[in-house]
Amino acid sequence: MSRQRVLVLVRDGLVPPDSLDGHSPKEIAEWKCEFDVIQALRSLGHDVQPLGVYDDLGPLRVAIAENRPEIAFMLLEEFHGVTAYDQAVVSYLELMRQLYTGCNPLGMMLSRNKALAKKILLYHRIPTPHFAVAPLGRKLTGRSKLKFPLLVKAVLEDASQGISQASVVHDNAALDERIKFVHESVNGDALVEEYIEGRELYVSVMGNDRLQTYPIWEMDFGDMPADGARIATRRVKWDEAYRDRYDVKTRAANTLPEGLALKVSKLCKRVYRELSMSGYARIDLRLTEDGRIYVLEANANPNLSRDEDFADSAKAAGVDYESLLQKIIQLGLQYHAPWKG
Asked: What domains are defined for the chain?
């Protein structure tokens, strides 16, 4: 393995310290992923330069010109506070002819826009819940074609932003109220889709041309109240006290029907290809009691913390954390960007 100059791009303010000593769990949670990645890359022998970016690409241009990194490790999830602009940063890297890790701009755009992604999936006959879009400041049309209960979420946000138990609605009054909430809280369009009762599965996919999947992971909702929807709300994903209280965790998906793992793997590779993704991604699905599979969404550049779903799934396949990051770097180095012509 050759030593690489790696420019790690993180949100300004999230450049982590060199040690966890003296920092509270709340502080560590803010930059845990960045810390894990940077420390692991250094342990692999790479020359690592973290760079915080927020609303100015000037420092990024300078870092590329002066340090000539072999690859940029993309951990940015937004630019100027706008999550949809992470793809613009990757586009800028391509304009600078700078190799980078993770998904290409087109794949990021298609997968980020949940409504557009679902239209593409439906065109290719890939099962996904029926849906409609309520544009910002306008009422929902086509609601008569949807069956309650419905799940309401933002079209462009990720990390379960704005999703709570109130996101699942059972009548028109609650639906209108939740659409208004999404419009006001994220200043963007609302996606309304039929809520699918069942097991929530996650599949890690890696590759550019030749794809591989890691063992299927599952959200175990533990002892959450029976009268609530089994969905990955923001509290379920990010509130450690809440997860501990109800014994919520992610783990390897056990007792799956025979042959389902292979079927899911093939389906997720199709999703990945139809959305023009590259590098690595996580596909979220629902498995109903009668064995039907629905694709919920595709997540480009998912969380790479050492103890998160993606890394745990890879570990279950015999790929340790450092090896996983090295594979991600290799995929970035091998990606055939248009400028390579």
From this structure: 5-102 (3.40.50.20), 129-194 (3.30.1490.20), 197-338 (3.30.470.20)
